[in-house]
Structures are given as structure tokens and as C-alpha cells.
Specification:
Layout lengths: L20 H7 L4 E8 L5 H15 L3 E8 L9 E6 L2 E2 L3 E2 L10 E8 L3 H7 L6 E7 L11 E2 L5
Parallel strand pairs: 7-8
Antiparallel strand pairs: 1-6, 1-7, 2-3, 2-6, 3-4, 3-5
């Protein structure tokens, strides 16, 4: 609080006339982007490990976070929760059942300067699609990725 009893956090650019939320948000992304992909069908653990492990190995410093639910071919009725952060990939946690009727594998990536196309290329074995609008700022590469609808096929 300042000498007048007001907090410097209480007001900011959003409170100023002519403030542009889009512009201010995008200007501060510093190449950070988030995107969600879905994978068609059940995937082999080996293919999945090669894709995510290869991305972690080559771009680990820029692979800030990955979380998802995956349908592996050897246990399709029991989804696995997967997580990774930079170079670390964690053991999957198995669920007893799917949380909803959508049994597609879904992965959320939070990355720094990794183009969506690079992620899609790694997972090409499973016909990946980006769902929803990627959260990309002007500094994030790959803003021209094709978007797929967020509804199951």
C-alpha cells in the first residue's frame, strides 16, 4: 500500500481508458504458448515414449509442462495420466476408467518457442490434431497451425 492507503495492485493498465487486453497480454508472453492435441486411437507406449522423450531430449529446456490422459494400446480400457516437465518424464498413473465418454488421448503442452507443427510432427504416428484455439502470443512461433474442432469425431 502506498501513503494514501491504496494498493499498487488495485489498479493497472486494465483500469486505464483505451486499454487493450489482447495487446497487453500478448506483448508479455515472451514466446510462451499452450496448446492441446488429441491423438487418434490407442497408441503404443513405445511410440508415445519416442515422441515425448524425443521432444524432451531435443527441446527439454523449452518444454515447460505436459499433462494429459492417454489411451495406450495395451490397456485401452484404463487411461493413463501422463506428465512431463522439461527433460523429466514421470511414470504414468493408471485410472480405473475414463472420466467421461471421450476416450481420445488428450495432451496439453506449455512450451517456450516450440512451434505447434514440431509437436504435431513428433506425434504423427497417431494423426494428432490441435483442439481449441492455441494460447499464442505474437512472439510464439507456429501461429498458422490448423485447428480441429474440440468435439469428438
Amino acid at each position: 500500500m502506498d501513503a494514501h492507503g491504496s494498493s499498487p495492485w488495485a489498479e493497472g493498465p486494465r483500469d486505464k481508458p483505451g486499454h487493450d487486453d489482447e495487446g497487453d497480454h500478448a506483448a508479455h508472453t515472451h514466446g510462451i504458448a499452450a496448446l492441446t492435441i488429441v491423438l487418434d486411437g490407442a497408441v503404443s507406449r513405445l511410440d508415445f515414449a519416442r515422441a515425448l522423450g524425443g521432444l524432451a531430449m531435443s527441446r527439454g529446456n523449452d518444454l515447460l509442462r505436459v499433462k494429459g490422459i492417454v489411451r495406450f494400446a495395451d490397456r485401452p480400457e484404463h487411461p493413463a495420466i501422463v506428465q512431463a516437465a522439461q527433460h523429466a518424464m514421470f511414470a504414468p498413473e493408471w485410472l480405473d476408467d475414463w472420466p467421461d465418454s471421450d476416450h481420445r488421448s488428450r495432451l496439453v503442452f506449455v512450451v517456450h518457442d516450440i512451434a505447434p507443427e514440431e509437436i504435431l510432427e513428433r506425434f504423427a504416428f497417431a494423426s494428432p490434431k490441435i483442439i481449441g484455439p492455441p494460447a499464442l502470443g505474437p512472439h510464439a512461433p507456429g501461429t498458422d497451425a490448423v485447428l480441429a474442432p474440440a468435439v469428438p469425431d
